[in-house]
């Protein structure tokens, strides 16, 4: 019996191309995944990645060491929940769950976002992929009472999930 990974199999060519990319090109690609320069540097420093799992592990390791300023850099690349960046296919895809939400729900989401941003000083960040507007609003309300340190660690975990999805899409050629 073999020990098989549960991670999807990477297109070896995509992974090899990414690992072999010139430093400037790799940095640009990584900054499209996560807008924290420190994250991009840490992930790049971990190459070559032997497989998809190693690249995802590099994401996790890089996320684990980001300080508050680095997390702010990473969050700066994300649109406010409920208002994807117009013309940004990634933002629109990740927030597809708001499509079709009624105006009252979107108004509630805007109000909750404003209260969260006033308290924490940054956008509410959640891995929105596969979530509806209602579930994102419920999560926002659930997290609003958190203290800053707790919320920072939740944000770190959400960023890691988002990065994993973006890395997998990149490797899958999506």
From TrEMBL:
Pfam families: OHCU_decarbox. Gene3D superfamilies: Oxo-4-hydroxy-4-carboxy-5-ureidoimidazoline decarboxylase. It catalyses: 5-hydroxy-2-oxo-4-ureido-2,5-dihydro-1H-imidazole-5-carboxylate + H(+) = (S)-allantoin + CO2. Its EC number is 4.1.1.97. Residues 20-168 form the Oxo-4-hydroxy-4-carboxy-5-ureidoimidazoline decarboxylase domain. Coiled coil: none annotated. InterPro entries: OHCU_decarboxylase (IPR018020), OHCU_decarboxylase-2 (IPR017595), OHCU_decarboxylase_sf (IPR036778). Signal peptide: none annotated. This is 2-oxo-4-hydroxy-4-carboxy-5-ureidoimidazoline decarboxylase. The lineage of its organism: Bacteria, Bacillati, Actinomycetota, Actinomycetes, Kitasatosporales.
């Amino acid at each position: 019996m073999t020990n098989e990974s549960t991670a999807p199999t990477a297109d070896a060519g995509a992974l090899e191309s990414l690992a072999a990319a010139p430093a400037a090109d790799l940095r640009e690609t990584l900054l499209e995944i996560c807008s924290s320069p420190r994250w991009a540097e840490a992930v790049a420093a971990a190459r070559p990645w032997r497989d998809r799992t190693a690249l995802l592990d590099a994401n996790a390791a890089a996320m684990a060491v980001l300080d508050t300023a680095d997390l702010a850099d990473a969050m700066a690349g994300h649109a406010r929940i409920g208002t994807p960046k117009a013309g940004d296919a990634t933002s629109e895809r990740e927030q597809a769950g708001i499509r079709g939400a009624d105006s009252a729900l979107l108004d509630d989401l805007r109000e909750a976002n404003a209260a969260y941003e006033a308290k924490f000083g940054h956008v509410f960040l959640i891995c929105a992929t596969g979530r509806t507007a209602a579930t994102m609003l419920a999560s926002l309300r659930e997290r609003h009472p958190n203290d800053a340190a707790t919320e920072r660690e939740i944000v770190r975990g959400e960023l890691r999930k988002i990065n994993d999805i973006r890395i997998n899409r990149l490797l899958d050629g999506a």
